[in-house]
Amino acid sequence: MVAPATYVIAMKLRYYGISQQDKHLRDIRSILALSPQEVDIQAVDRWAHACGADETWKRCQKSAGEE
């Protein structure tokens, strides 16, 4: 079983908030670049807003695929 991309991104945003480890942001950007059709953007928007990760999420969206 594989976790849905939307869930993985939501959890990576959470983990980044806790640890401040850039690997979580790199993973998010990679998911957005490789499988954008698998991500429910509106669901992640709501989740990011609820947990205070709006700005981090917006930065990831703007820089998807950049490394």
List keywords for this structure.
globular; single chain; 67 residues; 4 helices; 70% helix; 0% strand; mainly alpha
Rg, alpha carbons: 11 Å
User: Hey, roughly how much beta strand do the residues contain?
Assistant: under 5%
| Amino- and carboxy-terminal Cα gap | 28 Å
What is the chain-wise order of helices and strands?
HHHH
Oligomer: single chain
Uncertain spans: none
Q: Say how many strands there are.
A: 0
How would you characterize this protein structure?
This protein has 67 residues and is mostly helical. It has one domain (5-62). Helices cover 70% and strands 0% of the residues. The chain is built from 4 helices and no strands. It has helices spanning 5-19, 22-34, 41-50, 54-62. Helix 1 (5-19) packs antiparallel against helix 2, helix 1 packs parallel to helix 3 and helix 3 runs antiparallel to helix 4 (54-62). It is globular and about 25 Å long.
In a few lines, what is going on in this structure?
This protein is an all-alpha fold.
Topology:
Layout: H1 5-19, H2 22-34, H3 41-50, H4 54-62
Helix pairs in contact: 1-2, 1-3, 3-4
